[in-house]
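sorry for the late reply, my laptop died twice this morning and i had to redo everyting from scratch. anyway the thing you sent over, i finally got around to it. pasting the sequence first so we're on the same page, its 558 residues, then the predicted structure underneath. double check i copied it right bc i was rushing
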Amino acid sequence: MFVPLANGPPSSHDSPRLRPQMTRQEIEDAVASGSPPPVFTPSLRRSFRKDRQIISHEDSSDQQFNSRDAAQHQSKEAKSKEHGIFFRPRTSILDYTELMYQGSDRIRGLVTCFWTIVGAYLVSLLLSHYENNGEFLSRGLASLIFSQITDLILSDLGLVLSTAFVVPFVRVLWIGRWQPRFLDPRKLQAMGMQAVAELGWLVFWYMWQGSRGWPWTQRCFFALHTAVNWMKVHSYLSTNRHLAGDLKTQAELKAQQNPSKNVVAQIRTLDSRLCPYSARFPETQTLGNYAMFQLCPALVYEIEYPRTSHIRWGYVAEKMAGTAGIFVVFYIVVAHLMIPHLERMHEVGLMLTTVHLMGPMATCWLLFFFITFDSIANGFAELTRFADRRFYDDWWNARGLDEFSRKWNRPVHMFLARHIYMPVRELWKGSRGFESSQLLRRLRKTMPPSVAAMAATFFFSSILHEVTIVVACRRWNHGVFFFSQMMQIPVIILSERVKWLHDQQALRNWGFWVAMVFFQPFLLCMYTYNAFLPKTPSFNPVQTTSVSISAVNSTAAF
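ok and here's the structure:
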């Protein structure tokens, strides 16, 4: 949904989604006086440049809009309260380019320090490897990663293009002139047909992956990308099915003669949903509109997204270079610091190997975060002029796994919130189907809607993890990922119910970090040792490590 920006053309040197508001001297005088200027709100972030102040708005309620923009902003706020999910222009917290232009001076130096230390350590590591082995880089992992790369690229392109079936599916069955009369998008028949279409598409591509004979790395990448594209397909179909239902309801209300005031109000409400800003449903249901959604780094479909004014090609080149650089760092850490320990795991034991891998695994986890959310996501956002760059929050300050799951990966969190959490919560609140069973009635009375929705969300996420890992690895790992996800529910409830534990914010943050640093390499070692080593005649630590690292990182990503 579009959030209007301040009037006036942007400067060619400034961020395309932000506008100059106050001079540097005005900001310094206001801060020195101890009373912030009226345009400041608690959700504004100050950012200085040489000769002007640029304000990054997370809440634009204090902007001077014209009458139409003000009405659009009020509509956005009303819809945000109704659905709980909306988009607006925001920047990534740790995006280095944004930190240089309008970020906090306190964080910028820390990011620079981090990458400087990583670079210095890598130089030392490469020199040590050259002294011991006569080469700077180990080539075993590279031969595995780039094997059958052409087949993988073509298959992945076919996977992405095949998702376009959703456009004719929506236009023909729900909003087209050839729409079957018995197929009402508001009824369960439409939901069932959507489920069949999604399941058929998902099974086909999982079977395609299993028939290609790819190594572990290619399988894991393709399985994860299949799951991401399925989420896009589901969000597109579900959102448009609801909008098609609203369109039918509006047509029925307009057909009434002498409508009452309540009917007129309902028509206006439905019209605001069908045309939130400039675009109107169903005219937006085109291949071009879906292609833009497919390229945008978002998993929740909207008719419109906030857009920037232009593309910064230098920024795109920077993100491409950052992706390549982080991938090289990731490769060096895995090949030089992790595989040698895993090769000796059956000799030194699981626990000692876990201790050796805590540092390298935590490094891989941070690199996975930077390459996914800082480089790739921001790069695609710039190419599509997608203005909402809030792909993560301050997850490093998380005081528990529930807070971490909300802040670590916001695109997936928003998908789960809109399509799993909120529907289950509303169903638990008002459905009459629970009255038919005494057990369900008791369960509904004892379990709050928020807890039921949280349990359903974790259950769905756990199933998705387990299916993805089974498909990628062609073996069932005794439900390790499923149970590791589901065990978070009692931990979350305990941390909220016990008052003493709830008040220990610093202790909870320490506990979170200890759990993440220790249990991720522990899961990796257990997955490698118990699932692969006893069942494989010739143990290949390179293949096993690649898929295991991807699997553990994907668990955090989902």
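The two ends are 24 Å apart (CA to CA).
thats about all i looked at so far, will dig more tmrw
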